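Continuing the series of single-chain predictions for the mutant panel. This is the parent chain; the variants come on the following pages.
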Amino acid sequence: MGTVIDLALPIIILVVQYFLSKQARVWPGGILPAAFAVFFIWLMIDKDLAFFSRDVIPLILGITILCGVWINGQEAYKKKQEKELMKMRGQDLI
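Parent structure:
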């Protein structure tokens, strides 16, 4: 059961991140990367982890992935808006 949760949790987080990133406003997509950074920094301070590469790499990797999903979601939103605008322009010409 633990491996199912270990696999499902990151997928759920990425789906939620993508959904938040496709919103009209930009800031909802930044909630999860910011929360991840704050949580990870708190974890490093609380557990007295050193700021070496093996401790910082998951932070950098996680923020990179979440920000990448954020950027892709915003691009998808812009493409959707542009497609709807082109459809509206096409209907005006008829």
